[in-house]
Write a structure and sequence with these properties.
Chain lengths: 178, 391, 345, 235
Amino acid sequence: MSILAVTEVLVAQNIAFAIIAVGVVVAGVRLVTTENVVHAALWLVVVLAGIAGLYILLAAEFTAIVQVLVYIGAIVVLFLFGIMLTRARLGEGETVNKKMRAPALVIAVAMFALMAYSLWGYFGSTELEVMGRSTAELGQTTAQVADTLFLTYLIPFEVVSVLLLAALTGAIVLARRD
Amino acid sequence: MTVTDSQKMAYVAAQAADARVNLQFETEDGMTLNMGPQHPATHGTLRIVAQLDGEQVVRCEPIPGYMHRGYEKLCEVRTYPQVTTLINRIDWLGSFANEVPFILAAEKLMDVEAPPRAQVIRTILFELSRLGNISLFLGDLGIQLGGITIGFYAFRDREFVLNQIEAATGGRFHPNFDRIGGLKDDLPKGWIAETHRAMDRMRRLCDEFEELVLGNEIFQARTRGIGVIPADIATSYGMSGANLRATGVDWDLRRDACPPGLSYDLADWKVWTHPDGDSYARTWVRLQEVRESTHIVDQLLDSIPAGPIMAKVPRIIKVPEGEAWVATENPLGEMGYYVVSKGDLVPFRVKIRSASFNNISVVPWVTRGVFVPDVITIMASLYFILGDIDR
Amino acid sequence: MSELIFAIELAYWQQTLIKVLVAAVLIPTTALILGIVFLFKMMSWMQSRMGPQEAGPRGLLQLAADGLKFLQKEDIIPDRADRFVFKAAPVVVLASTFLTYVILPAGPDLIIENLPTGIFFAMAVSSLSVVGVLMAGWSSSNKYALMGGLRAGGQLIAYELPLILAVMGVVIQAGSLSMQDIVWAQADGSMFGFGGLGLPFVITQIVAFFIFMVAIQAELTQPPFDMPVAESEVVGGFHVEYTGFRFLFFFLGEFATAFAFAAIAATLFLGGWWVPGIDPNSALANIVGPIALFVKIMVVAFLIFWFRFTYPRFREDQLQRFAWKYLIPLALANITITGILVVVL
Amino acid sequence: MIRLSSADTPTTDAADEAVETVTDERREALLARITEVLGDAVVQSHIRPGDDLWVRVTREAWADVADASRNRLGLRFFDFLSAIDWLPSPFGRDMDAQEDLDADAAAAEPAPIVTGYAGGDTRFQLLARVFDVDEHIGVTFKADLPDEDLSAPTWTRTFLGAEWHERETWEMFGISFTGNANLAHLYLPGAFEGNPLRKDFPLLARRVKPWPGIVDVEPMPGAGDEGDSDEGGAS
């Protein structure tokens, strides 16, 4: 595979990928096994940051930065906010219902298999030709993303915005009692 | 004393907030926040327990007593001249002012009166301790609100007043200078001119405060309409001093019920009131009070009569039987001593009525439904000295 | 991407190492510079403080005294604190600052990494510090710390939006997210057909500059937006339990972040390293650039600290109201007008 | 209203008396109004011309006094509320240095309880002061409390500020106030026993280390220890 082409940059990329991937997996496992909700949220930060790192390795800077800004900067912070503001019981002592572990495992494995199969089926034979091509040619610069979003997919984009706005308004109406 | 429409509205709003808060208090248990005894906002060891709903105060109770020194008991075993050493430490920022009402009460019981020169100098020193005290209030309010610059200015300019007190009495903080029947010493040379200069500095500090803090939009947003105390609540709690005048009650003991022994009528000055009763009003009234105080001092400095500074009093002071109540307008408000004498060397009973005690007892009433930061501004604008609460 | 550092060809790993070292040295240095110039000298003159005017020659020893004091303090971790999170929090805050330095251009070739999405990257990583602050507030097992952390979180989120929206105006006008391109756009611009002075965006984007300055003041949790650390309310807020070296981390982070934000403001609105009269393509620009940038940073930092020493503090809800009711609509209006003008002109 | 000159200036005596008569009338009028409003509740009164007015009321009418003061008499300003323990020395002075007690031998044996202005029959008396902020005149109210039942109706229904004063009086004198639900310690620690301001409460600091008191003051030659205090050296 051409990804393993012997250039310094690619070696570095592969090493970085290995480190980040291992980190993400470990953090993901810790995320679901830890009993402390705040710790879980913090492990989520590690997972999301690692994935942002992977995006950068794939030359998708814009996606990576959006990942950091939206997921870490906003969503996880909201999680932490919610956990700290409410009186969620922290730490041990909580009796977690473990009966559903086996079905959950089955579903998780099935889901993974499905996604892996479909991705492999669709992209399996495509070769990413990285060498000698800039990100611009790969169609991943911010300008190109913006062009695609606001020209080709303008209608879906606006529909999604309206939907989110409606959801937001609805949430506020439900949450406010006075 | 008139109740303005805004006060009525504020009162109604407070009642409504009260009802709502009561409901919340019954239905959910919020977080309890313990401010103090060691907390930067309590300047001293006052403990404030606040029951919170989010950052809103459901119930807030000040708990004094961490510095109670039992002065009323101790006064019963001190001779009359010794008592002034103790009571100096009640309001430690305006120490000389603490001595005056007690000395006046003793003079009243003994039917002695200080010579005119002593009376005027006593009044000047009284006002100087007011300046030393309230100038620090101006700085402290800034510090509590996060604008620490004015705090340093206040400390800087307060030095000039303290220097004058020190030059005249020998004590920067605790002069112990007032005597039954007069004063310990006469003024040093050049003191009058130097004090005029210090008054100029204080007026400049007032201008700086007005520009830097009082006129600031953020400051106004933090204090206007916050901590509104209507006039009838204020009198019911016995609030006094600038806190009472900020509710529109035109009452100043210096002007209206000045006890014999102080010569405020030699000066031409004005008592300022403010109709709003909020934190801003209290600050504003205090600022004007400092300005008026500098004018009083300036005028009295120019009208010090010649003569002795001590009346004829016996070497060993035995106070005839009787009871006397003397209250003066101290920096923090009305400070009074109810002295019961049995013709002994020591007072039989001394009830110390300190201003902050009454002023702070209003806190549970006024902090209902406010936010935690507002507790800080309200406490700061009510202005208390811990020693004045705990005695 | 600049492959050259003063025209010396280096291997990738060597470049990376040098860049990391430069950033690692820059952070404490800049924090110290701001600390000495503004916190000690300017503040002591403005507030007539004694210590920094008197200690040592010209009062310069005050910083050494304070630094020594921090270092010899006992490292206390509260008994019931979440130890790991407690220890990690200052590092997270400092890391976010560290990452911001990556995209700061100090000259045509002096930049650690010229990302095409530079300013966007800076906004993203600066939002990371919220996580560190929340970690610190939560793990201290202290009510004041928790309140301070929550306040900081709410405040930083509320001001992220006006910050980014203010930047958008500049980005629309420059037509790029890259910091270098923004500098170039200002260098190439012209005022009423006169190109000699270029076009610093502070002229066309004065509204955005105002919003940006207000927002970074809030991001830095400085007065008048210092509710998260207000000592008279929450006694230092999220770092109330931190002592000694760990506190120093927060302290350094605060000043280094102030420097970074001042640098971003200088780059976005004042032309960054570019000086009128010096050819931006020449090697001279690489030498004059850092100096020019530094001067501009000091001007912006002066504004930041001037506000800090002048204003009293808002209340938390007033701050939120200010952000949502005034700053964000203003920023949106600014973007709209800029967008229209860019299309029309 | 302010006497300016010192007492030894003879010219102002006439002016002094004139002032006293005026204020006297004001206080007489106030006393008449108080008597009219309170009726039988007023037990005894005392006026010190030009100075103050003392009114002793019955304990039962204590709460009505507050209500009448604030709502009918215009005495709206609450000054303070406290109590006096009239138990005389030497019980109050047993912590004095022995030298002082020897020097003051006359006071060494318990004297009968003598109360102050407006009289009194009991050892404990309540003491409270209200003020009229418009007319600038104040009244000190007193009420006798029998030893077997040291309690009085609360003032907090009328004067909100009385709560802290009543708490202080409760812990310092052991006087309880019916109707004040919040009689908790204000100054003293929760487990404190005793009522410090009672005259028979020993001041332990004095017991441990006697205060030198007046012994270190050299008596002036000719200054009589029992004589009236008018003679003696001026300084």
